[in-house]
Amino acid sequence: MEGERRPLLEVRNIVKRFGGLVAVNRVSMEVYPGEVVGLLGDNGAGKSTLIKVISGVYRPDEGQIFFEGREVRITSPMDAIRLGIETIYQDLALAENLNVYSNIFLGREKLKKLFNLIPVLDHEYMMQESRKVLDRLGIEIPSLRNKIKTLSGGQRQSVAISRSIYWNAKLLIMDEPTAALGVTEQRKVLNLVKTLSAQGVAIIIISHQLYDVFQVAHRLVVLRRGEKVGERLTHETNPDEIVSLMVGAELVEGGRRG
Ligand SMILES: Nc1ncnc2c1ncn2[C@@H]1O[C@H](COP(=O)(O)OP(=O)(O)OP(=O)(O)O)[C@@H](O)[C@H]1O
Ligand SMILES: [Mg+2]
Fold first, then answer.
1. Domain ABC transporter: where (predicted)?
2. Residues with CB under 5 A from ligand 2 (ion)
3. pLDDT in tens, 40-68
């Protein structure tokens, strides 16, 4: 179907400056529904700045953003969330002292009326709905009444992702999702990325762990000093080539069509 090939997100010639420093310099990229795009680059390359422009944390100095084919102005994180763009940062923004389902419904709590009169939290509903989304994503958390602070890093990551998915994220942006995790948990988060992709959610993943990105991404975009220096289908490249792009070594572009 023609419509299926339309990018979910397209950014065109995005520029973001901090004073005299050009953190992102005329970067364009697309993300298709269900596609996993790895955003790569050395420290300071502009990865986080670019995704903060997409998620409404920063306003771009130049450039355009299109979402589902329409030009959009994303002036705050709420604008992004309303469009279906959810971003998971390393700090995750979970409430440590609340349980799992309360975090999934944080700020969007479900109320019910007691005696048709008094609004109270509908714990049953929130718990059942949370269980549904966790099951759908294959996430195992024994009790949804457990406080976030009792969970492991990977479980927290999963709760944060579940929250985005429950609220209908179409594009999930993850900045270094596996950095603080153990090996087993890293694998679980990567599996979750694959599950989401299979369910049609588009994902932009930033990671310094090339191995992780190669496992899950369909396409790789490489930034260096704020500029996009390369874009490859994952199955048409290899870590050596990507590292060369990241650090700027001279590279003979053999085997790639023009
Ligand atoms: N709020 C800010 N104010 C001033 N300069 C900034 C700000 N945020 C980022 N920068 C600068 O912009 C450039 C890009 O930074 P950015 O955080 O986007 O890089 P990154 O690719 O995410 O790096 P890392 O892999 O280390 O997270 C860097 O030179 C950085 O110092
Ligand atoms: Mg960063």
1. 9-250
2. 48
3. 999 999 999 999 999 999 999 999 999 99
